[in-house]
Amino acid sequence: MAYITLDKQKLKNNFEVLNDFFDKQGIHWSIVTKILCGNKKYLEVLLDLGVTNCSDSRTSNLKIIKSINPNARTLYIKPPAKGVIEEVVQYADVSLNSDITTIKMLSEEAKKQQKIHQVIIMIDLGELREGVMREDFIQFYEDIFELDHIEVIGLGTNLSCLYGILPNADKLIQLSLYKQLVEEKFNKKIAFISGGSSVTIPLIEQNILPKGINHFRIGETLFMGTNVYNNTSYATLKQRVFKLYAEIIELYEKPIVPSGEMGTNLEGETITFDQDDIGKTSNRALIDIGILDIDVNHLETTDETIKIAGATSDMIVLDLGENNHEYQVGSVVEFTMDYMGIVRIMNSKYIEKRVV
Fold this sequence. Notes:
With 356 residues, the chain is α/β, with parallel strands linked by helices. The protein folds into 2 domains: 8-233, TIM Barrel, CATH 3.20.20; 242-355, Elongation Factor Tu (Ef-tu), domain 3. The protein has 10 helices and 19 strands. The protein has helices spanning 8-25, 40-48, 59-68, 85-91, 100-112, 137-144, 169-186, 201-205, 220-224, 339-346, and strands at 3-6, 28-32, 53-56, 73-76, 94-97, 117-124, 132-133, 150-156, 192-197, 215-218, 226-227, 232-233, 242-255, 281-287, 299-301, 307-311, 316-321, 332-337, 352-355. The strands form 3 sheets. Strands 1, 13, 14, 15, 16, 17, 18 and 19 form an 8-stranded mixed β-sheet that branches. It has an 8-stranded parallel barrel with strand order 2-3-4-5-6-8-9-10, surrounded by 6 helices. It has a two-stranded antiparallel ribbon with strand order 11-12. Helix 3 (59-68) runs parallel beside helix 4 and helix 4 crosses helix 5. The protein is elongated. The model has no long low-confidence stretch (mean pLDDT 92).
C-alpha cells in the first residue's frame, strides 16, 4: 500500500526559523494550509507546533482547523462563491475579497450570525487574477466601508500564481500608497497590508520590502524549504518534509520498446521510442499508484538509478535498468515531490497519510 509521510521535526524546524524571521521584521504571517487538503492528522501536527494563524481556500478545511483549535485565527483566501457565504462567515475570521456584491452578502450573513466579518480587499497589481483594478479601488472602498457587519482590516494583492508576475518594491509601494489614501480620505485605520507570500520573502532579505507591508501568507516555503523567487533551497530550512512510498507489485525483465501497432495512450498521447533501443531489455517494475493519485511530472525517485517509464490510471511503470540494487516484488520505492505533486497526492483518498 502506498503512503505519504510528513516529517514533524523538519516541519518544526521550518516553522521556528520562519516565525523568528518574521517576528524580527515585525511582520504578521498566516500559514497557507491548503497543501494539507484538510487532513486532520497533519493539521493537528501543524497546530501542535504553536501555529495560531491559518489560511485556506476551502471552508471544509477551515472547519477542521476550528474543530482542533477554536481560537485559531482563520483566513479564507479566495473570493467566496455565493454557495459558501454562510460557511465563510462561520469558519473564517477574515476573508480576501474583491467583489462588492459578495461583500454585501457577507455583511448580510454576518448580521444573521451576529458577527462582524473582517475582510482584506485585494487589489490587482498586474497578475490579472483576483483583485479590484487600481483605478476603481477608491470608489470600491467607498461603496463598502460603511457596511454594518463588515470591517475592512487590510489591503492585499496576489502575485506569481497565475502568470508568474514577480513582486518588486515598486508594486508593493503602490499597495502601501492605497493604504495611505484610504486612511486620509475616509479617516479609517487599515491594520494590515497583505502583500507577501513565499515568493516575496527574498525582498525582505534584500532589504527592499516597503515598510508598510506587514502581513504575509506563507505555504510553499514552510512546507518545502524553498526560495520560490528563484527556485532554490534555503540553507536554514529543511527540504523533503514530505516523502512518498510505493510498493513494487510486479517486476520482470522486458523489452524497452513495445511491439505492435502504436495508437494513443490513456491520456491521448502518442509515445515515440528511440529505434536504437529495439531488441534491448531492462527490468521494469510496476508500483501501486497511478495518474489518479499523482502527475508523474511532479514526482522524482530518490534512487537515481530508477527512471519513470510511464503511468496509467492506477499504476506507474519504473525502469530499473540492470536492477543493481536488487529490488523485488514487495520492495518499497521512495519518492520526493514538488508542491503540486504533494497537493495531488494529498487529495487521493487511496494514499495513507503517516507522521514520522
